[in-house]
Design goal:
mainly alpha, MetI-like fold, 2 domains, globular
Length: 275
């Protein structure tokens, strides 16, 4: 009886967590199907399925361009984060040198600064580099919070790889680059998928830097595009369009997580248990 009660309580807790996590997105879908005064009516199920708000998002706003900008920025951030993170992880995990632990803690400590604390300095740097109102400014600035996490996770994963693999490659005359790309990389796919996906999500959802470093519609990413949506009057917000846009930009992330969920779990738990 006690075991049955424990299972029932656990199932209830899981159901509560699922409802709290899924309900906001579900309600956004329901709201995106409404228009007019129906937006302010509380309905758990849509009375009529209408996709007018989804068409309006692309018709009244440069949302397609915003999505493309986010894809370019996110893909660039992932590529650079994995390239730099993988090479840095090899040096920190495999190459013995003095101050290695201190350097790793310093890299992790950089990610603890809030964005607003580095915003003014980053703005001056972006202006000095001539990247203002350019997608390169977003790629450069996003590396602040994606690269430390990538380096930390990949270093932890690479430390647990067998030394015999590296020694055998060295005996065959392999260079460090070949060891990283042809020996370690095929084994590290779970960690690479995990860090790459988390870096993409961070770049896809970021607002503060994107709002500060871009001005034109063709350079703005989806969070800025949604934040700047306006209605017919100054004090009117098109909630139907905003909810439809939110659903559009959230669905790709959900699909990515569902597709790579096993590799994500493997990457996050790598090194947690040692035999």
């Amino acid at each position: 009886m006690r075991r049955l009660a424990g299972r029932a309580l656990f199932a209830l807790l899981v159901a509560l967590i699922v409802v709290c996590a899924v309900f906001p997105f579900y309600y956004a879908i329901v709201t995106s199907m409404k228009s007019g005064s129906g937006l302010f009516r509380v309905d758990l199920f849509p009375r009529a399925w209408s996709f007018g708000n989804y068409a309006s998002v692309f018709r009244e706003n440069p949302f397609a361009q915003n999505i493309w900008s986010s894809i370019v920025v996110g893909a660039s951030v992932v590529a650079l984060s994995l390239l730099l993170g993988l090479t840095a992880a090899y040096a920190l995990a495999r190459v013995p040198f003095r101050g290695r632990a201190t350097l790793l803690l310093t890299i992790l400590g950089v990610s603890m600064f809030p964005q607003v604390a580095v915003l003014s300095g980053m703005f001056q740097l972006i202006r000095a580099l001539g990247l203002f109102n350019h997608l390169g400014a977003l790629v450069f600035s996003y590396m602040i919070f994606t690269l430390p996490f990538t380096v930390w996770v990949l270093t932890t994963f690479m430390r647990d790889l067998p030394r015999e693999l590296e020694e055998a490659a060295i005996m065959d005359g392999a260079t460090p680059w070949i060891i990283v790309t042809r020996v370690f990389m095929p084994i590290m796919w779970p960690a690479l998928v995990t860090t790459g996906l988390l870096a993409f999500i961070a770049a896809w959802n970021e607002l503060l830097f994107a709002l500060t470093f871009t001005l034109s519609d063709e350079r703005r990413t989806v969070p800025v595009g949604i934040a700047l949506m306006s209605g017919a009057s100054e004090h009117e917000l098109p909630w139907g369009n905003i909810m439809a846009a939110s659903v559009i930009v959230t669905l790709p992330l959900i699909l990515l997580v569902l597709v790579f969920q096993r590799r994500i779990v493997s990457g996050l738990t790598a090194g947690a248990v040692k035999g």
